[in-house]
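Retry 2 of 3 after timeout on previous attempt. Resubmitting C-alpha cells to design endpoint.
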C-alpha cells in the first residue's frame, strides 16, 4: 500500500545529513511510500536527489506555520498523511496531526538523557514503533552524478580514477570552538600543495573570519569557493579526491558523498556526532588538546595512495 510519510526535521546541513540512516531504513520498510521531509529545503536537496526523499518542504512554508497557530490547521496536502514523524522538541506538530488526522504519530525529540548514542542511531531507534529497524547503511554513499542526474547510492567513490589529486578543505563550522586552529590548516594546505595536491578552500557566510585567517597565514593566494547551495557544494566536494574539515555539516555531506574524508574533532564527541560514510577517518583529541598537523598528515598519505 502506498503511504504518505511526513518527517519534520528542522536544522542546519549536519542535522539534515544525519537523517540518512533513518530515511534509508524508512525506505526499506515502506518501499512504495512517498516520503516528504519538512525542514531545511536547501540542505535536504542532496537527499532528494539521492532518492531517499520524494519531496521536501521548507520549514518556513505557510503550511508549517499553520501548525503553530493558536488554532492549529493541517494543510490539505497533508490531511491524508499515514505517518507523521516529528524529530523536534516542539509538541505542536504532533498534537495537531494527532487531533486532526488519522496518521500514526512518532514524536521523538532529540535525545538529551541516557548514555551517549550516535545521533543517526538514535533517529533509527525512534522508528521502532513503525516496525523500522537499522538498514545497515552506515557506509552508504549518496554518490555520483551530482550535476547530471540522481546520485547512485551503490557506486563507491573509490571507483573513480583521476590524473590529478584534488583536495577540498573547509576550515569552518557552526561554532568557533569546533574549528581546528587556522594556522594548522594553513600549514596543512601548504604541505598538500608541496606534495602535488591541488587545494581548494570552501567557505560559507559564517566562515569569513576563519578563511581570512587561513589566507593570512598562507604564503601566496589560496583558491576559495563559496557555494551557492547545498547541491553546488556537493558538486564541488564530489569532484575531489580528498576532503578535510571539522565537525560540521559540510564534513557530514562529504562523508556521505563517499569522498575520502578526514574529520578533525575537538570538543565534540565523534561517538555522538561522527560523520558516516564509506571512507571516513576521524582525528579526535581523545581528551587532550588539538591534534598536530603531523597527526592529520598520516591519514592524508593513506588516502592519497
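Retry 2 succeeded. Sequence:
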Amino acid at each position: 500500500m502506498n503511504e504518505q510519510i511526513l518527517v519534520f526535521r528542522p536544522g542546519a546541513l549536519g542535522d539534515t545529513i544525519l537523517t540518512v540512516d533513518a530515511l534509508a531504513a524508512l525506505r526499506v520498510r515502506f518501499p512504495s511510500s512517498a516520503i516528504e521531509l519538512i525542514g531545511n529545503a536547501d540542505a535536504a536537496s542532496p537527499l532528494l536527489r539521492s532518492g531517499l526523499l520524494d519531496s521536501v518542504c521548507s520549514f518556513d512554508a505557510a503550511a508549517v506555520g499553520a501548525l503553530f497557530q493558536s488554532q492549529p490547521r493541517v494543510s490539505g496536502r497533508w490531511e491524508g498523511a499515514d505517518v507523521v514523524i516529528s524529530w523536534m522538541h516542539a509538541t505542536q506538530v504532533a498534537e495537531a496531526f494527532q487531533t486532526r488526522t488519522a496518521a500514526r504519530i512518532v514524536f521523538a525529540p532529540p535525545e538529551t538523557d541516557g548514555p551517549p548514542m550516535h545521533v543517526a542511531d538514535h533517529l533509527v531507534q525512534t522508528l521502532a514503533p513503525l516496525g523500522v529497524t537499522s538498514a545497515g547503511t552506515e557506509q552508504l554513499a549518496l554518490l555520483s552524478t551530482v550535476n547530471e542526474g540522481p546520485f547512485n547510492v551503490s557506486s563507491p567513490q573509490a571507483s573513480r580514477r583521476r590524473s590529478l589529486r584534488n583536495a577540498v578543505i573547509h576550515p569552518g563550522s557552526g561554532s568557533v570552538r569546533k574549528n581546528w586552529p587556522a594556522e594548522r590548516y594553513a600549514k596543512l594546505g601548504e604541505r598538500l600543495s608541496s606534495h602535488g595536491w591541488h587545494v581548494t578552500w570552501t567557505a560559507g557566510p559564517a566562515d569569513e573570519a576563519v578563511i581570512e585567517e587561513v589566507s593570512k597565514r598562507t604564503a601566496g593566494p589560496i583558491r576559495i569557493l563559496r557555494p551557492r547551495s547545498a547541491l553546488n557544494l556537493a558538486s564541488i566536494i564530489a569532484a575531489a579526491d580528498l576532503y578535510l574539515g571539522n565537525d560540521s555539516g559540510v564534513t557530514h555531506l562529504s562523508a556521505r558523498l563517499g569522498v575520502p574524508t578526514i574529520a578533525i574533532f575537538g570538543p565534540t564527541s565523534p561517538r555522538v556526532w561522527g560523520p558516516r560514510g564509506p571512507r571516513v577517518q576521524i582525528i579526535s583529541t581523545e581528551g587532550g588538546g588539538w591534534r598536530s598537523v603531523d597527526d592529520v598528515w598520516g591519514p592524508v598519505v593513506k588516502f592519497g595512495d
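Attempt log closed. Confidence is low (pLDDT under 50) at residues 144-162.
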